[in-house]
Amino acid sequence: MPNTAKIVLGLGGICIGLLGYRYAYYLSRFGEELDAIGSTRPMGEVEPTNWKVILTQISFLFLAALGAFTALSGMFAP
Questions:
Q1: Average pLDDT, the chain
Q2: For a tag site, which of 12, 28, 35, 42 has the least CB within 10 Å?
Q3: Which pTM was predicted?
């Protein structure tokens, strides 16, 4: 019998992971804007580095893969 809680949790992880991958630049930029609070550089002028955007994308892809694993394990639970 499928485990509904695992399936829903997995689908949520997939959705958040794919949305995070899609908007990784904006999420990284938001983080940089938070880091700019209190510095002399205006918040509107900050830009995330390429490695930070790529690291954010990899992290969210890992979350999506973990969500897929969780959903599949919930579907095929004994």
A1: 94
A2: 42
A3: 0.87
